[in-house]
Design goal:
The two termini are 31 Å apart. The protein is built from seven helices and 28 strands. Strand 17, helix 2 and strand 18 form a beta-alpha-beta unit. Helix 2 packs across helix 7 and helix 4 runs antiparallel to helix 7. The strands form seven sheets. Strands 1, 5, 6, 7, 8 and 9 form a six-stranded mixed β-sheet that branches. It has a six-stranded mixed β-sheet with strand order 18-17-19-27-21-25, sandwiched between helices. The protein is an alpha+beta fold.
């Protein structure tokens, strides 16, 4: 377990860390809390089979305790020598809430811009680390920080040159796992795994150009989601519903893909990046809620939509959310014998963190219009019994597909909009992730 805190954006200092051998190096991020309460961050590198190097300390690396924020802040840059040549990198970090910390790495592109934040698998931790003790992230192998740092319209081939050629942006691996393609690997592909690492696969089926991406929430041993009184797990329920929606969309000729095809974990950053990579028009994250609130006669469906800023919803996300809310609540209202759990402000709404910005990662991260649907409350016994039936899966799938089809083909606005945003600090998604076989 390790922790870091926010890093002040500051001036530039170029320092060298030289890798003498030709084997692929690894990087990891380190941090420690000083007795003054300040945080100090550092970067380390090692070659295969060797010890970690001395810590490389950016000029601007000390951070006083401060309020939480969802915004990434960065250290001063460092020049790191890798097998691909000199690379300018900087450490990025943010503190979502409650003392939790997320840390990553950025690489400068040839045009001077910075890459997206490259995230180690182990990167989030609560406050309370021992004072003065250095704690480390999981390693980033060079293919991960080199290939994933490529600009969004290109990827870096293993030889170091920018060349996607006719490579797909994403594919379904031989084991049926959807992954983003980040380069070539011999006759195969270099891909981003569900846990955010780089891996090679020999082949797969392209999933470029999908109009819709579904994200069955949770999955794997570390993130099961809610569990109903009948033992039904949210991860399993979300996956079952996603398969039914995919089938319904296919019957209508609407191309669609999913971020998860089985019971395995996938980082939120990877899911969001996959949806953007396949060129989808929309991303819908499927969930079932908890805990149970007061019971009533109408479904407590909630659809969370994106914000342009704290005062303004993103129009296309809101329209998609309104259509989903209208179709789903109408369809679920047909089940007459269900006592529904519902919050007073249920509807189409924005959920902001206490410090601003969209609270949920699957809303905040994607570039494309995205929504997160909580169909109902799995924690509620009456609803859990319904959710375990084929009738529910079939009706919810048709309602979801109806909304998607209307979003893509009409200007219908939907309904159920809640003007006032909700303020909520969600628990951080687990940072542990178990890799799944790709082929």
């Amino acid at each position: 377990m390790w922790t870091v805190a926010l890093i002040t954006v500051a001036g530039v200092l170029s320092t060298s860390l030289v890798a003498a051998a030709q084997t692929e190096p690894q990087l990891r991020l380190q941090a420690r809390i000083l007795s003054s309460g300040r945080i100090e961050v550092a970067l380390q590198q090692r070659l295969d089979g060797e010890q970690w190097s001395d810590r490389l300390l950016p000029a601007q690396r000390f951070v006083p305790p401060g309020p939480p924020t969802w915004h990434w802040l960065s250290s001063s840059p460092l020049e790191v020598h890798t097998a691909a040549g000199a690379q300018e990198m900087r450490i990025a970090a943010r503190r979502p809430a409650g003392g939790r910390i997320e840390v990553g790495l950025q690489q400068r592109h040839p045009d001077g811009s910075w890459s997206e934040v490259i995230l180690p698998s182990l990167r989030v931790a609560p406050a309370g680390a021992p004072v003065g003790r250095w704690l480390a992230s999981s390693p980033l192998h060079e293919p991960a920080f080199r290939e994933q740092a490529a600009p969004p319209d290109e990827a870096v081939a293993p030889g170091g040159g920018a060349d996607l050629g006719d490579l797909p942006r994403a594919l379904l691996t031989p084991a049926g796992v959807p992954v983003a393609v980040i380069g070539r690997a011999g006759a195969g592909y270099l891909v981003r795994t569900p846990c955010g690492n780089a891996a090679e696969v020999t082949g797969g089926d392209p999933i470029d150009g999908m109009r819709v991406v579904l994200d069955p929430g949770h999955g794997g041993p570390f993130e099961t989601g809610a569990v109903g009184p009948n033992g039904l797990g949210e991860d399993e329920l979300n996956l079952t519903l996603s398969r039914a929606v995919l089938a319904e969309l296919a019957r209508r000729g609407i191309s669609a893909a999913t971020t998860r095809t089985g019971d395995y974990g996938s980082l939120l950053s990877v899911r969001a990046a996959l949806a953007d990579a396949v060129g989808a028009a929309v991303l819908i994250s499927l969930h079932h809620n908890g805990p149970t609130h007061r019971l009533g006669d109408s479904p407590g469906t909630e659809v969370y939509v994106q914000s342009d800023d704290d005062e303004t919803p993103r129009s296309e996300s809101a329209r998609l959310g309104g259509l989903l809310y209208e179709e789903i609540t109408t369809a679920l209202g047909m089940f007459a014998d269900v006592s529904w759990s519902r919050l007073p402000d249920a509807g189409v709404l924005r959920v902001l963190s206490p410090w601003g910005g969209d609270a949920y990662g699957m809303i905040r991260r994607p570039v494309i219009p995205a929504v997160l649907v909580e169909y109902g409350y799995l924690s509620n016994r009456s609803e859990a019994e319904l959710f375990a039936t084929d009738d529910y899966i079939g009706i919810a799938a048709v309602a979801t597909a109806n909304a998607i089809e209307d979003y893509l083909n009409t200007d219908r606005p939907g309904s159920g909009f809640v003007e006032r945003p909700r303020r909520f600090d969600p628990l951080a998604a687990p940072s542990r992730c178990a890799e799944v076989l790709l082929e």
